[in-house]
Write a structure and sequence with these properties.
about 120 residues, mainly beta, seven-stranded mixed beta sheet, four-stranded antiparallel beta sheet, 11 strands, elongated
């Protein structure tokens, strides 16, 4: 059993910045990757950014140059630095991780956090 807890969301004005954090806890042998998704009202959940255990990153085109994903493997934590925020960034942001929980079965399972609200006003 693995739990992901997000924090750092809030209400900001366009052009400002926020930093989201997601800490994983529970039965964790290894984390293969962590990612951030977001879902706006009336929209499907979309990938914002991801990072592998080796540090390879991927970003949605809409956030390239503005958002930066990073991780602290020792703390089982992933961050999302969001700069130059726009109203269209408003959404619930969800943490996602592929977690290996034991030595016997090392196939990773996918887990989701409950989400943190980010609201950007104009």
């Amino acid at each position: 059993q693995v739990q992901l807890v997000e924090s750092g969301g809030g209400l900001v004005q366009a052009g400002e910045s926020l930093r989201l954090s997601c800490a994983a806890s529970g039965r964790i042998f290894a984390i293969n990757y962590m990612a951030w998704y977001r879902q706006a009202p009336g929209k499907q959940r979309e990938l914002v950014a991801s990072i592998t255990v080796g540090g390879i990153t991927n970003y949605a085109d809409s956030v390239k140059g503005r958002f930066t994903i990073s991780s602290d493997n020792a703390k089982n934590t992933v961050y999302l630095q969001m700069n130059s925020l726009k109203p269209e960034d408003t959404a619930v942001y969800y943490c996602n991780a592929a977690v290996v929980s034991g030595w016997i079965n090392r196939t990773p399972n996918e887990y989701w956090g409950q989400g943190t609200q980010v609201t950007v006003s104009s």
